[in-house]
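Session log. Operator J.P. requested a structure for one protein chain; no other inputs attached. Running the standard single-chain path with token output.
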Amino acid sequence: MSMQSILVVEDEEKIARVLELELEYEGYKVMKVYDGFEGLQQLRERSWDLVLLDVMLPGMSGVDLLRRIRSGGDLTPVIMLTAKDELKDKVEGLDLGANDYVTKPFQIEELLARIRSALRTTAAPQAESENVMKVADLSVNKSTHEVFRGEQLIQLTAKEFSLLAYFMKNHRQVLNREQLLQHVWGYDYYGDTNIVDVYVRYLRNKMDKGYEPELLHTIRGVGYVLKDPR
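Structure written below.
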């Protein structure tokens, strides 16, 4: 079994170092960063099994970081760390999608137990979540072929679904017409390449028109990209 990875976003270097040592002793792979922007960059560059996130951070607060990653569809388990002990602070973090909340100073044994609990909770639905791709409030279920924008079910044809699924798989990557033709229509397709533009227009009318933010963008002279612009 591969080592589970934990990202520690904590600006107090002594606390971050203690967490690193304790977690590595327990068999986790650990990276520590000291501000919210660096934490956001690490979350965008690779996948993590869990994040320990301090609330009070320089640059971007832990709450703002949590809001950014959840709005982008990132469901990585997050345990908030804070010196605050007020109910409203805990409620805010949990409402934004935190999995748990630990108040400083904490006993390392309690934190480790909460980490194990969060990892167990997210491991159970992992197989199902692998079939669901999300960008912002757009979700695509590869097993059921269902597409939702928020709570609204979007009806797509089989080809429209295949095109959207390929965009979702490669979200934030600019895809040109040749790539889309090869992967969605097949290598033996010899029709008009404008078919891509036609189907992109179909998709936009169904999944972007009337919704905020718009997710499917044209990069002039290059192709198309699916991304949350926020």
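Operator note: DSSP finds nine helices and eleven strands in the chain.
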